[in-house]
Design goal:
It contains 3 helices and 6 strands; from the N terminus they run H-E-E-E-E-H-E-E-H. The chain is an alpha+beta fold and 184 residues long. The chain starts with a helix and ends with a helix. The longest helix is centred in the N-terminal third of the chain and has 40 residues. Helix 2 packs antiparallel against helix 3. It has a 6-stranded antiparallel sheet with strand order 4-3-2-1-5-6, with helices on one face. The chain is elongated and about 100 Å long.
């Protein structure tokens, strides 16, 4: 084999190795980008709001839903911690089956978090467990469902449960607190 043929063969190998290295590098970059996008997208809700995922030593989420009555009215309040110092409040309401939904949103800060924690602790909500079913059932009556996260534990109950004294008062206070931030 001549010197010229050996040089051409080495050149072809160098090009082949270079192409393989470039493809591997692009594959790694694409994999990292896909992984980062997956992580970012897994923390987004439908509005593009990034939710704070750290463990909190207090309240981190509240959801109050009232609905199911004969006229189709609906009340849906959701409060979610988005950082150590902020919550996103979303209220969706509808007066009847055929009425349009009204949606209000707000961001609340430290004072909301402190007030919500105080209400929940005063009512003993961090320690609530399962509740027995109530004997009272109202046909064609609306139902209220409350769920919340406190100290990393999810709690939930409905209006057909036997709740401790002051439970609905605490829920009403949390509802009024959140609604006050929507009026600002």
């Amino acid at each position: 084999m001549s010197q010229q043929e050996q040089t051409q063969k080495k050149g072809k190998r160098s090009v082949t190795v270079g192409i393989i290295a470039a493809v591997v590098a692009l594959g790694l970059v694409a994999g990292v980008v896909a992984f980062v996008n997956h992580l970012r997208n897994s923390m987004l809700d439908g509005d593009g709001m990034v939710y704070y995922s750290a463990e909190f030593l207090d309240f981190s989420q509240l959801h109050i839903h009232e609905g199911g009555d004969m006229i189709g009215s609906e009340y849906d309040l959701e409060v979610v911690r988005i950082s150590a110092e902020e919550c996103q409040i979303t209220l969706t309401t509808r007066e009847s089956h055929d009425a349009r939904q009204d949606v209000k949103k707000a961001i609340a800060g430290r004072s909301f978090i402190a007030d919500a924690n105080a209400i929940m602790e005063a009512a003993g909500m961090p320690d609530w467990g399962e509740f027995p079913d109530s004997d009272i059932f109202i046909l064609d009556g609306g139902t209220t469902h409350v769920s919340y996260m406190y100290n990393g534990q999810r709690h939930d109950f409905t209006s057909n449960k036997e709740l401790p004294d002051g439970a609905w008062s605490a829920v009403r206070q949390l509802r009024e607190l959140a609604e006050s931030y929507l009026k600002m």
